[in-house]
Structure formats: structure tokens, C-alpha cells
Amino acid sequence: MKYVQLVLVAYFIITSCSNSKSDSQNLNNDLPIYELIQEEIFDVPLKTKVILKILLKEKNVTEQKIKNLLNYLYNKTIKRSGFKHHRHPTNIYIYIYTSKYKAESGKGQWIGMIAKNFDEKAPRIFINEFQLNSLKEKKEEKWELSYEQRKEIWKKMIINDRKAQTEADKKYPLDKPDAYKKNLKSNANLMKKLKNKYKKQLAEEYKIEKAIIDSIGMEGVTNGWEIPK
User: pLDDT tens for residues 128-169?
Assistant: First the structure.
């Protein structure tokens, strides 16, 4: 899926990373409003892992506020006890989302996350610049299309990309080593052809140029629009 792939690649290129101090000071003075929406604990002899999903409940939030919240939640979590196999968590992963939809979609659309693996002394913080953009984007008209219309087109594009991939995989399967080598080029060519076909259909449906479809795709990526489940 072209635009899903763009999102995932862009995350690794543009996402910023920094080491987190274990003794952050005065975090409570500048924390955004949040809600814990999911907690998972895996307590086994090898490790005790805690995963938290957090919903950000306000829009006027800076990157620093998100980092403050991540540090605050991490410092609370690392002190937790009562586990069977380890005194405190050995692995911690905390994700902050701007909507429940993004948190539940499984598409990695977090705005910030903090991670500590078993062998790491200090956690690492990651900030997703595209999801930051989503907090301040203007819901204005572009290309004679409303904001709502463009988001509707974006969702249809993602669904069409998935459809194109499914059809290409069905005709030229890649699920086995011998088939992968044999069908890779044909699969890619057919998928590209189908994606262009569906983009043309979308352009005709909304009576716009195909180039605008591509521009909407990039707008959706840059502003962290919700990816359909």
C-alpha cells in the first residue's frame, strides 16, 4: 500500500529520538491531560514487560509537553512492583495517541512513545512529527474540496491500495520462496497498474485531476490522518 508504506518509512526518517533522564524534574507542573486506555503486562522468567497506551485529551500540546508526560509515566511505571519474576519492570513501552481510533487501529500512529528494553540502562523517547502536525493543521478548503472531502478521498485511496495489493498477490503470489523470486516483478507491475486505475476512478468520481489525488495522499501522510482499519 503506497501511502501506508510512506507513513511507515517517514516515521523512521522524520521521527526524532532522544535519551530520557530517569530523574526528570517538575514534570507534574506541565503535564497535558491524558487517559490510560490500555495496559498489558507480560511477566515471565526472561522479562517483565509493561505496555501502556495513553490517550491525549487536549489539542494545545507542545513536543516538550509530550516528552514530559512520557517521562512522568515512565518514572511511575519503572517503580511498580508486585510482579512474580522481577522486582520491577525490565521492559517498558508507553505510547501516546491523539485519538482512540489511532490507538486501536494497529497502524503505529502514535504521537510519542518511550521505550526501554531489558539491556538498556535508560529509556529512549520518540516523537512523531506527522502526528504533531495533526494537532495544528487547518481544516481549510483546497483544490475546491473541503477538508472532510479530502479525508474521505484519503480513506478511499488507502482501501484501494489494499485492494490492488490483494489482487496482485492473488494473481502473482509471493507467499513461497520460489514463487517470490518468480512473481516479484509481475506482482509489482500489476499492483502499480491497479493503483493508477483506482486513482483515475477516484479522480473521475470527484471530478478532479489525478495529480490532486496524489497531493491529497501526501497531505494525509504529512498531517498524520487516520489510516482505515
Answer: 999 999 888 889 999 999 999 999 999 999 999 999 999 999
pLDDT at residue 3 tops 90: no
Contacts of 91 (CB under 8 A, 6+ apart): 47, 48, 49, 50, 116, 117, 118
**What share of residues in the chain are helix, strand, coil (percent, to 5)?**
50, 20, 30
CATH class of 11-136: alpha beta
Contact assessment for residue 85 and residue 76, using Cβ atoms and an 8 Å cutoff: no
CA-only gyration radius of the chain, Å: 21
pTM of the model: 0.78
Sequence ranges of the domains in the chain: 11-136, 147-222
**Contact call for residues 94 and 109 (beta carbons, < 8 A):** no
Q: Which residue has the cell 530517569?
A: 22
Q: Which three three-digit cell numbers place residue 75?
A: 518514572
